[in-house]
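So, could you explain this one?
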Amino acid sequence: MKKMMIIAVLIFCVLSSQMKNVAPQVDCYDACSTGCVQSNTRLMQRCDRKCQIRCSPDSKVEGNLG
């Protein structure tokens, strides 16, 4: 019984070590605009515009996938 358990753990370790890590696909604009929720419409629009600038394809912001 112990041998079976050890073999199962070894197989699991080998299989999990062979898996490649996949980076999550993050939508820059969606992540940014989620933080723009406010009761003041003018401030919300201002924040949304900043997100559009930050997440534009021309943006040099690190981590921008948009």
